[in-house]
Design a protein that fits this description.
It is a single chain. By secondary structure, the protein is an alpha/beta fold. The protein is 47% helix and 12% strand. It folds into two domains: 135 residues, HAD superfamily/HAD-like (Rossmann fold); 67 residues, Putative phosphatase, domain 2 (DNA polymerase, domain 1), CATH 1.10.150. It has a six-stranded parallel β-sheet with strand order 3-2-1-4-5-6. Helix 1 crosses helix 2 and helix 1 crosses helix 4. The protein is globular. The N and C termini lie close together (6 Å).
């Protein structure tokens, strides 16, 4: 491999439950009940606009225009208080001898906040790619292809590290090696070329 492309939420930082907890609270503000665990299982790795649309259909209502901004504010508060880097990821980043970058469905501001809070910013500098800047979301392969092109590496020499099935689908469509980071998963995922439960396992699969 000549390039490692990391997802951010749930891969570099332990943020997925926090994001869905913020969504649970935002729904609760509207008098709607849906647990963070349920939301995470249903929407992991998804585009926020699509998640909101799905929830509006589920609850047969149109959310206020302020819904997204208020949700993101709740995410920021939880990040500042509770967000941590994924166990073992700093050791991995310190030991990598090939280029690496981030390709995330989140807005750049959210990615950068997560990196700042967890002390990972120094590893990525400007090597950050957001779906919001490309106009394409996983499972479409465009974000990964854009990242590879910008980093000047052909897709077949790229490894993608993802925690969501949508991300794995995108990696497969991009013809890149798909590595599924699933610390709690005991079943083998057919979408992944490789499946790991701890970041310490990653290095042996990309050398």
């Amino acid at each position: 491999m000549k390039l490692v492309i990391f997802d951010c939420d749930g891969t570099l930082v332990d943020s997925e439950l926090l994001c869905n907890l913020a969504l649970e609270h935002q729904l609760s503000d509207l008098g709607l009940k849906c647990s963070a665990d349920e939301l995470l299982a249903k929407y992991r790795g998804g585009k926020l606009a699509s998640i909101i649309s799905s929830l509006e259909n589920e609850f047969s209502m149109i959310f206020p225009k302020s819904f997204e901004s208020e949700y993101r504010s709740k995410v920021n508060e939880l990040f500042d208080k509770e967000l941590v880097a994924t166990d073992g990821i700093q050791d991995v980043l310190d030991s990598l001898t090939i280029p690496f970058c981030i390709a995330s469905s989140a807005p750049r501001a959210k990615i950068e906040r997560a990196l700042n809070v967890t002390g990972l910013s120094k590893y990525f500098e400007n090597n950050i790619f957001s779906s919001y800047e490309v106009g394409s979301w996983k499972p479409e392969p465009d974000l990964f292809l854009h990242a590879a092109s910008t980093m000047k590496v052909k897709p077949e020499y790229c490894a993608v590290v993802e925690d969501s099935l949508l991300g794995l689908e995108a990696a497969n469509q991009a013809k890149m090696k798909s590595i599924y980071y699933a610390p709690e998963e005991t079943k083998v995922c057919g979408l992944a070329d490789v499946q790991i439960r701890h970041m310490s396992e990653l290095i042996k699969h990309i050398t």
